[in-house]
Each structure stands twice: as structure tokens, then as C-alpha cells.
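The instructor's notes for this session suggest beginning with a concrete chain rather than abstract definitions. Hand out the sequence below and ask the class to guess, before any prediction is shown, which regions might be ordered.
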Amino acid sequence: MQRNVKSLIGFSIGATDGEIGKVDEFYFDDETWTIRYLVVKTGSWLLERKVLISPAALNVPDWGNQSFPVNLTKEQVKHSPDIDTEIPVSRQQELELYSHYGWPFGSPIGVGFYGIGMMGMVDSRIPFEESIAAQYQEKKPHDPHLRGTHEIKGYGIYAVDGAVGTLSDLIIDEHWKILFLVADTGKEGPGTEVLIPSESIKEISWVNSSIGISIGLEELKDSPF
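After discussion, reveal the predicted structure:
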């Protein structure tokens, strides 16, 4: 099952005792190209605060009603660590977040749209707390690879032989892995957008707001779009 990120913005997040809020954007790891958090804008019950929810907390989605039920209570969310989503998320904040909710330490690789445990998959990556500890030793106060989907939208995409267009969306699979970038070529009519496999990404320049890929323009003509 594949979904485009744009279509998931605005999905409601349903706690066990009521609605928490709406999905505002997603945070992803630009090394593994996997969604790490859903950024949820709470309603007036929590002063329109933004909170981070791991895919590990999700139960079976209600696609018809555009809702992600989670195995959390509103009280848990209310007392979760207050994280400013307008600045880089620190390692310490992530550690506090995982400890507060009791989420398993590790990335969401192996976690699907149906929550953790139902997929029968195990994360083989370095445990989250060990990873954080190691990077503290390297004196990196925040995660340089944690990026927002709003932040990357509009980035220029460049093939080995020229400009492709700008990033307009991302395509993810049921395990929250980013499979494709959707590039708007700026042209009119058929073929205005092309799909670019995430494994073809060779570099991202956050300073220049650009993404370099390892394939050519001719190869992109066979894109599914």
C-alpha cells in the first residue's frame, strides 16, 4: 500500500478517549528516508499546541474517516514533553518523549500503518537510546537528519544532466518508508509530475534548498506519472 504524504495532512488523531488533533506535517530521517514522527496540531483543548507522535503509537487507520487511532490517552498527550517544533528537535527531547510514552527505543522501521506488533517485524537498527548516547558524545545537541515535510517542499531537484523541477510531494509505503519524491516539472499537460526513487538521491543541500539525484533526465521520462 502506498500513500502520498499530502493526502495524509489533516487526518485526525484519535486517542482512546477522544480526538487529539490533526496531522500538520511529518518529520523524517534524511538518511533512512523513513517517517519518524507525525506532527499533530492539537485543538483548543490543549491551546493549539503541536505534539510529536511516533508511528509506533498508531492502531489500524480509518481511511474512510481520515483518522489515525492511537493507543494513547489525551492525558498522556497533555503531559508529554513540550517540544518547540519550530526549532531542531534535540536528542534529549526525543529521549524524554520516548520515555514518557514508553515507546520502544528505535526507529519506526518495521512499524506499519497498523501499528507495532501487528506487522510481526523487528527493528534491527541500533537501539534509540544507544544512538542518542553515542551522538551526545560527539557533541551533537540535535538530530541533523530529522527534517520536516513542510521544510523540504519546493526544493529544486537536479538530475546529473539538468534541472528536473521542484519537490511537490512524497510517496510512502505502509512501513512509513519514503519510496519516491514527486517532482513538479513546471510544464503543462501530461507528464507535469515525475516520480523519483528515493534510493537515487545522492545529496541534499539544506543551504541551497536543493536535491541532487544520480539519474538522468532521459531516464525520468519512464516515470509512472
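Then share the key points. The first strand starts at residue 2 and ends at 4. The chain has six helices and 13 strands.
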